[in-house]
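question for whoever is on the cluster today: can someone run the full assembly for these? two chains, 1037 residues total. i dont have access anymore since they changed the login thing
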Amino acid sequence: MEFAELIRTGQAQAELLRGPEEPPLRGTLCITGHHLLLSPGPQATPDLWLLLLRNVDSIEKRIAGDSGTITLRCKDLRVLQLDIEGVEATLDIARSIEALSSLESVITSFPFFYRPKGLRLGDAWHFHPPECYYKRVARETNAWRLSEANEDFSLCPSYPRAVIVPRAVEDSALARSARFRQGGRFPVLSYYHAPSGTVLLRAGQPLTGPQKRRCSEDEELLRVVLAGARPGARGFIVDTRSPQAAKQARMTGGGTEAKAAYPGWKRLHRPLERGRPLQESFVHLVEACGDLEQSMDRWLNRLESCRWLSHVKETLSTACLAAQSMEQEGACVLVHGADGTDSTLLITSLAQLILDPLSRTMAGFQELIEREWIQAGHPFQLRCAHSAFSHARPKHEAPTFLLFLDCVWQLGRQFPLSLEFGEGMLLALFDHAYASPFGTFLCNNEKERCLCEVRTRTHSLWSGLSQPKEQRKLRNPLYVPNPLAIWPSAEPQSLRLWQGLFLRGTRLPEPSEVAWEKVWQIVTDQEKTEGSQPTDSASEPRP
Amino acid sequence: VENVKLLDRYIGKKPANGSLYLTATHLIYVEASGAARKETWIALHHIATVEKLPVTSLGCPLILRCKNFRVAHFVLESEVVCHEIYISLLKLSQPVMSSTYLRLLMFPPPILIPACNSSSLAFLMMCSAIYVKLTGSLPFLSFFVPIFGQNIPLIFHEGISSLSPSVVFLYFYALFIEKGLLLNALANRAAGKGYENEDNYANIRFRFMSIENIHVMRSSLQKLLEVCELKTPTMSEFLSGLESSGWLRHIKAIMDAGIFIAKAVKVEKTNVLVHCSDGWDRTAQVCSVASILLDPFYRTFKGLMILIEKEWICMGHKFSQRCGHLDGDSKEVSPIFTQFLDCIWQLMEQFPCAFEFNENFLLEIHDHVFSCQFGNFLGNCQKDRDDLRIYEKTHSVWPFLVQRKPDFRNPLYKGFTVYGVLNPSTVPYNIQPENSLSLILLMWCHARPPCPSPTPRVYSNSDKQTIICLKSLDPLMHLKTVLKCIHKWVKSYS
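^ ran it for u. tokens below:
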């Protein structure tokens, strides 16, 4: 496909307004296949401004006299305004941006063309395969094995090639359990909690249907899990739907585990919002954040009615429930919703952050996202196709990953010393999930990534983030390893709006950036005077 | 009393046993178990209400609500003992002072008034004398910025009488801030007070900032605390409770007024006269917020202490009444000073590197406003304090706080020169519910023993520094320096 066909005008004179109180930038505007460039001209500093077109969420054009104004609302919640000379040029540029930003094809997307200096293709792609995590589990227990039953993605298209399953369960039994679960997502190990010897599993909903079907292999699998944990261990099935929704799902072939069929397992329902209501909540919140003229009461009212903070609260308390069952009650936990690709991952990944000190390190957090989101089959391409500004009717979009990042941000605010990464890391992950020059968040699952050869033809975000110049922004200077579980408070009094993200378009980032810089300065000064070396061991990838 | 349990609302585990000691000034709770023997001190002055609940299986519960928003929930074994403690706490927490005071002169003897030339000054003195006789207060200088355009920017406290104020404002283009609502002002005028007649004031613009009165503020705080005390509220209950309390709306109104004054002074280079109906509540709030915005000095330790001395203590903010130190009229109690601290907190959130002190400093000051351990916040005005001989009989809180400076230092402070005039945003979402609440919540959840009161002693050589510090903290000294600056400027101009 030729990008040239879509570019109506390559160049125009324009002025860019980047936000409150930043000086406008004048220069020549150019459109390329993937970028919008503004070059200030030879006399000025060679400061080139550029925007990934994929980042554009909505575009609005206005003509006044012989010039036009284009307002670009980006997926990363920034708002830009371009004043362009010439009516014709304005319309052409707007049309080109519209066409180029909505390209659907993965192969032609920018990551396949991005070749930065200093990075090698293929680097860091094999940083965090499931094999690495299995090695860690195998050091603690013998009850689990790495199964390659899904080698050709025939059992489950959204699982990676290798998954961790109970040692006592044969591959053939896995195949039958897969047929009994939504999307083929049979129960697999998500996290092994060594201190209590309990495990966290995730799956899709069982396909019991109106006839209340059963599957002996699936029942056997869960029985073996309990037997392998410790004698007399109990199990909790955390269903992320309400009891009514779970019952309704039976009409369409889904359902829940019957009590009698799974002895030792107790079902708990913790309804979490997903899909369109979640996306609408996100859209309403961003809308409310963009309104500068409202009164205090109106703002509080909108904050309440968008319900975003309620979703954060529910998510955190459900994750606490799962973590608490494992740590304090010594129970095994299986999490599933309907598909097992959204709220399920939200809960399993947050529970790990709460319990596992390693996942709170820089490398551990990257591993967690790679393992629990990317390889676990969260459909990033569908969920992150549009952000909050898009006028398109939402189909599969949902800010599930953003909700996860928000919860992590809340954790980091309540435990400012316990996370090795800072707000900058979370913001970067949000940006890259929606539009990125790296291939990490492309496609919906491992199968698609293999078909598109993402691993061999694009760069990994993790190698991009490991560059030294990024570190100050991403790391938390105050980090001190904390070997304990961190129990967050999910009370409304303890939760805050993530200003750094939601108020991006309207607030000056300057004071908080200055503060961040100052913290770094203090920490490095202190290290110098103490003569101790900064601890960089945690940043290295774990064996 | 032995075998008392202190219930913690956060750690829902089994409460530890301990002993309760009641002294003349403090209620002390000591945990029996544990190596550390954790102590909880509650100053009796802090106790706002004592509540006795019906006997439960655990024992006899007793709930103390403190003025610094702490809540302590004790469970006692015997009902008789519980009742005795209840009665003694009721008596001890509300000392009664029998004498009544006349509020004649609210201001400290030396005050600053604009000195333009000798004749106008003489005339002004005359006017003021009459004015003082009438109302007991005088327009005086609150803030002076050493930036010069055509005008000297000054902010004045308190209204001036309608005698002939054009003398005062002969050279100045002034801006009035009336902080009551316009309707209120008209109603007041009917009652013989009111606001300045615009016809009498040439070159003067009026501006009404709608800040509510003390009664609205009091009920707002009450509602806010009710929201805080909800047990496991849902997010929407919490947010709508927050909205209906209106606390944030009030904070925003105060900040808006402060910003308006700061802009008028800095950008338009005008003089500003601020008053409300009395001149010691909203006026103090708005003037001190404006001062903090305008001058980096007030963002330092010394500056904040001077500001509080100057704008609040000397200007006759009625601490005793507003804080309910004595068993007085409950309608006079209002969280005016708390709101001022909340405004500073909001600014600190927006400009983390601009303040020399941290939130603990604000919390400590807030504690001591209510603790009555020090003399600064006793009495309603300077006259009260003179009559009580507070300067001879009590310690000042400031040297005590200065001693503990390391605890209160903001490590992110970038120094005096980095930030000039602050230009905060008061778009609603920048005044975060969470931000504003967290100060109240912090106070509310604060579980730490108050520092033991310093033992009275004679100043020795080692205390020299403290004395110097005390001296330089004298607000009058500060005003004198300001006066010198004005004199210098007037000379250079005329």
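summary bc i know u wont read the tokens: The first helix of chain B runs from residue 79 to 93. Residues 9-13, 96-194, 435-439, 441-479 of chain B have pLDDT under 50 and may be disordered.
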